Automatic annotation (TrEMBL):
Pathways per UniProt: Cofactor biosynthesis; (R)-pantothenate biosynthesis; (R)-pantoate from 3-methyl-2-oxobutanoate: step 1/2
EC number per UniProt: 2.1.2.11
Natural source organism: Bradyrhizobium brasilense
PANTHER family: 3-METHYL-2-OXOBUTANOATE HYDROXYMETHYLTRANSFERASE (PTHR20881:SF0)
UniProt remark on cofactor binding: Binds 1 Mg(2+) ion per subunit.
Gene name linked to the record: panB
Leader sequence segment: none
Entry protein name: 3-methyl-2-oxobutanoate hydroxymethyltransferase
Catalysed reactions, semicolon-separated: (6R)-5,10-methylene-5,6,7,8-tetrahydrofolate + 3-methyl-2-oxobutanoate + H2O = 2-dehydropantoate + (6S)-5,6,7,8-tetrahydrofolate
InterPro entries reported in the protein's UniProt record: Pantoate_hydroxy_MeTrfase, Pyrv/PenolPyrv_kinase-like_dom, Pyrv_kinase-like_dom_sf
Active site, renumbered: E182 (proton acceptor)
Protein's cellular compartments: Cytoplasm
Length: 268
């Protein structure tokens, strides 16, 4: 069996070769991502991608665990990180521990990720000290959409840098093995990356970060809309639609199934 990458393996990549990470919620895409990426994020973006929710707020722990198990079965080498969904960890460090233990036991993933800066530092320490590797997530934190009001890039005015820098420092010092930095202005992302001891994984936070993550369906061109920071490496939406239209055409004209798709009778 291939040995999976671990949270300490990722932690050791600070100032090394950039960490490559993508999301997956699904066994077959996990197998493809696994061949090229250091880590797979079972992100709560599955609420938008798989379930059609407008935000990640409705995502449940059961949804995350079900898809985390699928990704673990589909992959073998990458570190699998499972997002803690909204409401499963913010109440107390004990609540966070119980939710994280369920994720770790039921999926056998290698780490969890949770959103929030300084306010979550105590929780990050509580989990890390008890055998649960934690990836942080600062800058734009989509689970807070209802208090933020809208999804907007962070730190585009220098007078707003201090709290975000403080968030990065607090989570790193609390023991997170890595931190996702989302939608943060490039100079601030660079400053944070240079000032903390653990790798930053950027999404909309420039190549100055120690690694990158994207939502797989966004970079494949499968999502109807994607943020400015996404580069489309494929155009799967139109490809899939063309295939579906071809199938519909062939069914109606009886061109499908063909003779090669049909079972004849056995000789008796
Ligand atoms: O849920 C997710 O896909 C994420 C990434 C965008 C970092 O948290
Ligand atoms: Na997420």
């Amino acid at each position: 069996a291939i040995k999976r990458k671990t949270a300490p393996d990722l932690r050791a990549r600070k100032n090394g070769e950039p960490i490559v990470m993508l999301t997956s919620y699904h066994a077959h895409t996990a197998a493809l991502v696994d061949r090229h990426c250091d880590a797979i994020l079972v992100g709560d973006s599955l609420g938008n991608v798989m379930h059609g929710f407008e935000t990640t707020v409705p995502v449940t722990l059961d949804m995350m665990i079900l898809q985390g198990r699928a990704v673990m079965r589909g992959s073998q080498a990458a570190l699998v990180v499972v997002d803690m969904p909204f409401g499963s960890y913010e109440g107390s460090k004990e609540q966070a521990f119980q939710s994280a233990v369920r994720i770790m036991k039921e999926t056998l993933c290698g780490a969890v990720k949770l959103e929030g800066g300084a306010r979550m530092a105590e929780t990050v320490a509580f989990l890390s000290e008890r055998g649960i590797p934690v990836m942080g997530h600062i800058g734009l934190t989509p689970q807070s959409i209802n208090t933020l009001g809208s999804f907007r890039a962070q730190g585009r005015e220098e007078e707003n840098w201090a709290p975000i820098e403080n968030d990065a420092r607090a989570i790193a010092e609390a023991g997170a093995f890595s931190i996702v930095v989302e939608a943060v202005a490039e100079p601030l992302a660079r400053k944070i990356t240079q000032s903390i001891a653990v790798p930053t994984i950027g999404i909309g936070a420039s190549a100055a970060c120690d690694g990158q993550v994207l939502v797989l369906e966004d970079m494949l061109g499968l999502s109807p809309r994607a943020p400015k920071f996404v580069r489309r490496y494929g155009n799967l939406g139109p490809m899939i639609e063309e295939a579906i239209a071809g199938y519909a055409r062939d069914v109606k004209s009886r061109a499908f199934p063909g003779p090669e798709h049909v079972y004849g009778m056995k000789k008796s």
